[in-house]
Amino acid sequence: MNALLEILILIVALTDFRLLASSRLATLIDTMVFQALALSVIPLSLTAAPWPWRLMTLVLMTLAVKGVVLPWLLHRAMRTVDVQREIEPFLGFSSSVLLGIVLLGLSFLIVRPLPVTASPGAGSLLAGALFTILTGLVIIISRRKALTQVVGYLSLENGVYACGAALAVEEPLLVEMGVLLDVFVAVFVMGITIHQINREFDHIDTDRLAELKD
Amino acid sequence: MIMTLPFSILHWSLALILAPLLPGIINRTKAWFGGRRGQPLPQAYHDLHKLLRKGAVYSRTTTGIFRLGPVLGLAIVMVALALVPAGALGAPLAFRGDFIFLAYALGLMRFTTVLAALDTGSAFAGMGASREVQFALLAEAALLSGLAVLAAGTGQFSLSGISARLWTPDLHQGGASVLLVAAAVLIVMLAENARIPVDDPTTHLELTMIHEVMVLDHGGVDLAFIQYGAALKLWLFAAIFTGLAIPLRTGRPVLDLGVTVVGIFLTAVAIGVIESTMARLRLLRVPQLLVVALALSLAAFFWTVR
User: Fold this and answer.
1) What pTM was computed for the model?
2) What's the total number of domains in chain A?
């Protein structure tokens, strides 16, 4: 397993911990983007140097969507709803990090008996991907603000992308592009929804949506 | 091993002689960031000299424990320092499981300080003691699990053995987990030595102090012992951190020793930079930082045993 892949997986795991530990929305968004950038390079680290043009297109498209468009949308949403940080999550930040440790252990435990042979180091990559997915789930479940939940959703998507990179080296370009388009549209719609929620209720705390009456 | 023993003892002696320079280096770095010249580098030596000439005043409420605390603390940290290797150069003392001994020697040192603080019967000292112990609980877990990861990765059970195997080609686990542990040790170092994200060594507001408030009642020779002990403890952690973070193993004892000493001074500069660029965390946020250190250690653990 090559050193670059090893470092990239560790970066992804560390960004997951940062997502769990941080309360500032700007930090969360930047961390998520950094994670996406690290992940987008992973397909290149799995195969040897003369990369096929399909792979290059995929990587460049991922970089453009996740590195430029999504952060722009999210930062804009953050500005319009004027929310700086997650104040009172359902699960505290220290507890989230402790839960993250358990989840990381669990991910390695789950992947260990699996015969992952797509490429050398794919097992570890799969564990990192699983950890990223679980982190995204924890964030979606345990945070109040709609914007934080969007970040959790994107972390989850990052994990799915890493899973794809670990398991299917020769993934159809069309499928990847479709996923990327989905994510873009989802975040776009979520941005509008958050804006609407904020305009109607003066906040984006999703738990209070349960009190909705007609 | 016989050949390197004199150099190991030399490292220990150098630590005893040069350790008071470290606070000076940190202060000068902070002064440089603040646009000042700062106190002279050997300021700590002058302070120690001044304190050693003074007598001590003991409150009538204190007992012998109060007088014993600083002496024991200094003695323990001097022993603990003998376990710390300088890069590939082994330590004067090395045995199986000595990293557990090291962690608990530091715990014992903390225990003596805390006992002496509680012995004064002052509410402030008690408050500082309770905070110190609370944070130590988390810091110790991070340090021990970090060192255990290295033991598992290298197959060695003494600090010297671990350090000799690190960053060599036969280290099969790669450097990633070593760097994770180094980051955890850095956080533990800042917490254990009462540096800025955790505790502000220059503050004299009782409500924000942790370590400083415990030693308020000591004076004269006792205070000199405490300050010297603190400098030695800083050297100890800086030596461990240097061994982990600087992947340079020359194989020649003189060079290894030189690399380590330079690395320790650079670590002091790094601490100065951290102190100048970061604000002290709110007290409630400190456990969170230490939990992150624990997370780094355990991530390294999963990475090693996967």
Assistant:
1) 0.88
2) 1
